[in-house]
Structure formats: C-alpha cells, structure tokens
Amino acid sequence: MNRRASAADFAAAQRVAHLGTETVFAVSSEAAALAVQGKTIYPFHLGDLNIATPENIVEASLRAIRDGKTTYCPNAGIPQLRDALAEDVSRARGLDYTAGNVSVQPGGKPVIAKFLLTLMDPGDEVLYPNPGFPIYDSLIGFFGGVAVPYTYAEGSDRFHLDLDGIARQITPRTRLLILNDLHNPTAAECTPVELERIAELVLEHDLLVLSDEAYFDVRFAGASRSLASLPGMRERCVILYTFSKKYAMTGWRLGAAIGPKPIIDVITTLNVNIESCPNHFVQYGAVAALTEDQSGPREMMATLKGRRDVALGILNATPGINCLTPETTFYLYPNVTGAVKSTGCDGHESFRRLVLDATGVSFCTRLHFGHALEGEDQYYLRLAYSGVSTAQIQEGLGKLKTLIESYN
Amino acid sequence: MNRRASAADFAAAQRVAHLGTETVFAVSSEAAALAVQGKTIYPFHLGDLNIATPENIVEASLRAIRDGKTTYCPNAGIPQLRDALAEDVSRARGLDYTAGNVSVQPGGKPVIAKFLLTLMDPGDEVLYPNPGFPIYDSLIGFFGGVAVPYTYAEGSDRFHLDLDGIARQITPRTRLLILNDLHNPTAAECTPVELERIAELVLEHDLLVLSDEAYFDVRFAGASRSLASLPGMRERCVILYTFSKKYAMTGWRLGAAIGPKPIIDVITTLNVNIESCPNHFVQYGAVAALTEDQSGPREMMATLKGRRDVALGILNATPGINCLTPETTFYLYPNVTGAVKSTGCDGHESFRRLVLDATGVSFCTRLHFGHALEGEDQYYLRLAYSGVSTAQIQEGLGKLKTLIESYN
Q1: Which of B274, B281, B300, B389 is best to mutate for the A interface (most A CBs within 10 A)?
Q2: Which CATH number belongs to the domain containing residue B305 in this structure?
Q3: How high does pLDDT run on average in chain A?
Q4: Cβ–Cβ of B120/A16 closer than 8 Å?
Q5: B308: helix, coil or strand?
Q6: Do B385 and B249 fall into the same domain?
Q7: Which residues of A are less than 8 Å from B252 in CB distance?
Q8: How far is CA B347 from the centre of its chain?
Q9: Quick one: which of A55, A73, A242, B374 could link to A108 by a disulfide (CB 3.0–4.6 Å)?
Q10: Residues A189 and A151 occupy one common structural domain
Q11: Looking at beta carbons, which residues of chain A come within 8 Å of B4?
Q12: Is the per-residue pLDDT at A5 higher than 60?
C-alpha cells in the first residue's frame, strides 16, 4: 500500500478519479484575468446576482446576532425556519409538509450530495439531465453510481425534456431520477401532461426523485408546478429548495431538503456528521424572507424581466442566432448554430473564445453543462442575465451582434 | 430492486447502516425537555459557548454585507482570509503555509468528511481516538473504511495517548491516522517525545494524518504544538482549523482545511461539488478576527480559566471523584469510578441519569465519545464549562457534591 513518496504525488482515493467540477468557474477566472489586463468584460457566465439582498433579511439576521444566535442551533435548522419553509412550500405546491419534512442546509447544493449519499448504492443507475447542472453527473460518479443522461430538445416554442429517452433507459438497476424542471440551462418547463408521464414512470419503476426546484419561484408569468404535487409523488420526491435565487442570497448559503420524513431524518443525521448545522443567525433572515413583505423579490423579478427582454431583442436580431422566450430562470439558451458556422468556428469552445476576445462578452456554452450526446448537431450558449445591467446587455450583446454581422 | 412500498419503509443506501451520530444531542434534548417541565438545568453537556462573539467580528461581517459581499465567492474562500489563515497558522507552528495550502470550510467539521473522501478507499484502515469525537468513527464507516480505535490512559498528572496501541494496530491496510492532540474529551496533549514517536510511525508506515487542531488556540498556560511542525510532517498532515472555539463563533460555521496543496486542491473541488463556497460575508468577520485586536479571545480565556478552577475545586472535594487539571480545551474529564460505586450505579448511563434527575446537572459520559474498549474498568464524565456561568458551576456542582456525599 505504499502509494506515494511524498504529498506531491499523494494517491487520492479512487473515487476522486470520478469527481467532476463546474467548469463555469474556469470561465469566471479567465474573464477576471482579462479584466485585470484592462479589457471590458460583460459577465453573462455566472448565475449570480448583482442585486442586493432585501434589507429586511439583513436586518433580521443582524438582530439575531445581537440576540446571541451565534451558537450552534438544532441540526435540522431552527424550528421557526422549518415551519416557515413547510408552510411556504406546501402552499405553492398544494401539499401538507410540516417541520418534520424539512432539513435546512448550507445552500441548495448540499441537498444533491446528501440525497445521493442517503439513497444511492454503488452501481445504482441514476437518470440526470444533460445538458444540466454539472454537479449531478459529478457526484453520481464520485459516490459510485452510474450516471445515465437524458436530454432536452428544442421545439418551435420551447425546450422539452426527452421523455422517451427517460423511459427507454430505465433498467432494473435504475433507482433514482434527478429532475430539474424549470431547467438550468434551457429554462424548460414540463407541461402537466409531461409531469404526469414522469410520475407514471416513477411509480412503474419504483424510483425516488430529486426534484431540484432552485428556480421554482423565479418566473415572469404563469405558475410553477412541482412533480411532488402529483398523486403518489409526495412520498417519492425530495425537493431541493434554495434561498439563493429568489431572495438574492447566493453568498448567504442557505437552502433546504424537503421530502418524506424518513429520508429527511437521514439527511439531518448527515448534517450532524458533515457540518453540525447551517449558520445560525442567517436562518432568522430567512424566516423574515419567507414571512415578511415580498416587495424585494417582486422588484428583482421586474428588473430581471427588463433585462431578459432587452437581451432577447438583440439576440433575435442577430443573424444565425435564435432564442426562445422563457418564463422562468434568469438564463437564455440561444441556438447559435448559424453564427458558429458563419464565423467559421469549429465548435462551442472556439466560438466562445472568438466572442470573448473580440467583444468581452463572457458566457458558458452547452459544453459547460455536460458532455455532448450522440447525434447532437446544434450549438447553444447559456447567457445568465442575473449579473449584468441592462446597459451592459445593450452594449455587450450589441458588440456581439456587430461581430456576427461582420461575417455575413 | 423493488426495495420499498412507500417512503415510510424506503430502503436507504447500505452505507447508511454505518452512519453514526453525536449522542450529545440526545442529552441536549433530554435536558431541554426537563427545563420545559420547570427543572433547573446546569448544562455541562455541550461544547458550545455562552460568550458573545467579539464585536469587531460582527462589525466586519456587517460591513461586508453592506459592501455587497452577499454573492458567491471563490470556492476555496476569499483570498484575504486564506492569506490571513496561512500566516496565522504558520506563525503559531513555525511553518510556511501560503494561501494555496488553505481551503475555507463551513465549519471545522466538514474537514473530517472531505479528508476521508479525498484519501480513504473502501477497506482502508483508519486509526482514530476512542474516547474521542464520535464523528471520526461514524464517517470512517459511512464512507467504507475500517475504523481502528486507539485509546487514552489516565496517568498521575495527565492523560496520554496509547502510543503502543497505535503501533501495535498498524497493518498493511492502515492508511490514515486521525490525531486530536489537545484532545476532546480528555484535554490530553502529547509531549514533544510522544509527537516524535508518532511522526516516526507515520513515516515508517507511509500514513497521512488528519490533525484535528480545533482547540490549538484554547489554552491557559504553555504553548500548543502541532504534529505538522515536525520534520517530514508538513507534507503528511491536513490541519483541521476552526473559528468556533477561539473566537466564540460556533454558530457562524467557519473553519478551514490546511495542508499540502495537492490534497487541498481536491478538498476545494469537493467544496465546488458539495456547497459551492462558505458564506461570503462572514469570511470578512474572520479576517478581522485573525488580524485585529485579540482582547476578545483573551477575555474569553480568562473567563474560562475562572470557571475551570471553580469546577476543579468542587470536583476534587467530592468523594469518589478525581479530576486532573488540563491546560487546554474547555472540558474536564473527571474519573468518577468511586462515586459510581458508592451510589450503587451499574454504569455510566445510570450514574448520568441519577445525577441529572437529582440535581439537574447535565453532562456527557465516556460513552458519548465511543464504545467502551476491552478492559476498561474506570468511569469518566465529560464536563464542558464553556456554556455555564461560574455561579451555575458553584450551584450545580455543589448539588452534585452534596448528592454523592449523601451516599458516603
């Protein structure tokens, strides 16, 4: 077992070979390096917000510090927050969760790891979206599972998930389904009929579901739906909830796992083992977020809608770019196949570099959300408009348009 | 693979059968329930602090919120905090860490899970202290390793770890050693000669070490030593650092892994996967903690020393109780074998319940820090004096003394 001579060549555990990352952070670093050199950067790459956390949340957290909430708190979170989350999530989904169904987490992301650690054995197959949030694939492999991708297809007016692909790939080893309806990066949403079909498959094949609902409350029109609301699904879904997006609290790191009590109890025991509890006093801010005046999130959504519309206008006026209009998330997922070809680029990455170097517009592409699947012949970008002002959108995407036009 | 009919009998992953917990939380709940019934409780069970976080830390965090530090931050933590930690930890240990050796974490505890995930393969043997922090044993088993306990023995003036037990139990499958010098619960510290012997074993058997230094800066006299300071050990040790104890920041959830860069890089990739980053703005508070006036921690240590001495005086005046004087941690680990016998109790748990019911003094015993090992015939309590006032100590331990005397 002499696996190394020094730490410089230390032998990591075998599972580390399966560990992925979020390559978006490499794009961030690259953009930051260019900015340091004096280049004007238009940051469309990161799903972060350049909008302040509402003041009432800050004030409630500060009061909690002054009130001595700087000690450990219960492993599953403070009772007031578990109650408020159960009530809020139940109301929006027509369900009846109580505090016992809620385990507060230091962010939404920890729910992914804890869901897999609780329910996935080595060799179990897990269906996950590709394109999709890259951490699903990474952690399935890291914890010994088999990651089975299903995809999304572009329709005439929306993206939709490949239901046949899900059904076709279910085997006796399939145990879990990861669903990210209100989807990052495509902003796709299932129709009620599609959700029913998913529920049928879940019941027929005895699956459990991670329902990543990070963007459930981030929408411009209509109402979000949760798979958990369908008959039989409450007992088979663990909802990933986060305060990050709705309340502009990305850096606060607060979220929750919400689902059947026996599963939530194990997840809370993982809290005991992995981090004891989330930060104590920010949970009082989160209670204020859920129970007080909602003008903060409303104003944020109005701001985001304005940005979305400006971006859509410029993108769809650019030759070789076509972008559908999503009603949820703060991402656009334009099809840029024509522009990639007209600029003579040989793929996603060369197009990304061309645009970044020529215009300073920094974004992710389809390849930052998983490896390309067999038969893919279209090119897509993911533009996050959560961290750029309307003026930056006009200027940056204007430069992008001029660049593409110069090739036509 | 039909493993359940509903979530009520959901089948957890097999690893969940190996997941332990901190039974101290059960003691907390029990004490809280008695308090609700009107009983006066003297809380010696939990290693939490009833001392406010120093004001400069609160102020720096608040300024960071106002300054927009509510967004994501780099996965390894903000550069200023990594620099400050590298400098502080290096100075205290005579080492030369830089920011690249530091990965900031949402608490000290996450370092345990990430160390094991990075370095332990299924079947690897890991030496860990018993009595000791119960999470070591739990997570070694949960992630598929084999937990091999070594113990501590009571000497005439101090507890010392069983070096022969470590040496005797090393096999070709032994890969990792968990060392918690400045030890919870016994407050034991290795002598320089003992640390040298550990370093020899580590080199001879090609081990890597988790050096849990949570209490490194919590001491009343003398200077702490780190195994990492010994020749060859910097490259083989990952230090668990926490702000929880030194700065009365338990509920802030902030710590760090500090060690060889190749290992730290993997741990930071685990940050990307598991929680993105620690809370952003509290890291500015931590920079203030490390770089500004240290009167807060100094006053805290003076307060704790006063409590320690009062507690020691009463314990050592109680028949059948003998307690050594530790210069570190905020725990006392009295030998209560005589008192257990004089009260007619048949073990740790019945003695704990007798005292709790008769006096309201709530504490943990040896059994909250691991299963009893073969040949153990002494009884020990762990009394945390971090969360009780001097008046509570006098009153509570006074009642304990009176109770024990009534049996003699």
Answers
A1: B274
A2: 3.90.1150.10
A3: 96
A4: no
A5: helix
A6: no
A7: 70, 279-281
A8: 24
A9: A242
A10: yes
A11: 206
A12: no
> What integer pLDDT is reported at residue A9 of this predicted model?
61
The shortest C-alpha distance from A195 to chain B (Å) reads 20
Of A185, A187, A180, residue with least CA distance to A210: A180
Domain span at residue A338 reads 12-43+296-406
B232, B262, B291 — which closes off a domain?
B291
Give me the residues of chain B with pLDDT under 70, please.
1-9
Domain membership flag for residue B54: no
Nearest CA of chain A to the CA of B9: how many Å? Answer: 8
Please identify which residue in the block is written with the tokens 């996967």.
B273
The domain tally of chain B equals: 2
pLDDT digits (tens, 9 = 90+) for A215-250: 999 999 999 999 999 999 999 999 999 999 999 999
Residue found by looking up tokens 């900031």 in the block: B104
Task: Give the list of residues 6+ apart from residue B81 with CB closer than 8 angstroms, or none.
Answer: B102, B104, B283, B284, B286, B287, B290
Residue at B200 is within a domain: yes
**Residue B52 forms part of a structural domain:** no
CATH, residue A267? 3.40.640.10
3-state SS track over chain A: CCCCCCHHHCCCCHHHHHCCCCCHHHHHHHHHHHHHCCCCCEECCCCCCCCCCCHHHHHHHHHHHHCCCCCCCCCCCCHHHHHHHHHHHHHHHCCCCCHHHEEEECCCCHHHHHHHHHHCCCCCEEEEECCCCHHHHHHHHHCCCEEEEECEEECCCCEEECHHHHHHHCCCCEEEEEECCCCCCCCCCCCHHHHHHHHHHHHHCCCEEEEECCCCCCECCCCCCCHHHCCCCCCCEEEEEECCCCCCCHHHCCEEEECCHHHHHHHHHHHHHHCCCCCCCHHHHHHHHHHCCCHHHHHHHHHHHHHHHHHHHHHHCCCCCECCCCCECCEECCECHHHHHHCCCCCHHHHHHHHHHHHCEECEEHHHHCCCCCCCCCCEEEEECCCCCHHHHHHHHHHHHHHHHCCC
At which of A291, A316, A349 does a domain end? A291
| Chain-centre distance for alpha carbon A347 | 24
**Count of CB pairs separated by less than 8 Å, A with B:** 213
pTM above 0.90, yes or no: yes
Is there a contact between B282 and A280 if contact means CB atoms under 8 Å apart? no
How many other CB atoms sit within 10 Å of the CB of residue A156?
A: 5
Q: Where are the alpha helices (DSSP H) in B253-389?
A: 261-274, 282-291, 295-316, 337-342, 348-359
- pLDDT at B9 (0 to 100): 61
Task: Tell me which amino acid residue B110 is.
Answer: P
Chain A residues in contact with B31 by the CB 8 A cut-off are: none
DSSP track, B333-358: --B-HHHHHHTT--SHHHHHHHHHHH
| Same-domain check for residues B302 and B218 | no
Distance CA B343, CA B287 (A): 51
- Are A21 and B65 a contacting pair at CB < 8 A? no
Contacts of B36 in chain A (CB under 8 A): none
Residue B338 within a domain? yes
Q: What is the mean pLDDT of residues A107-117?
A: 98
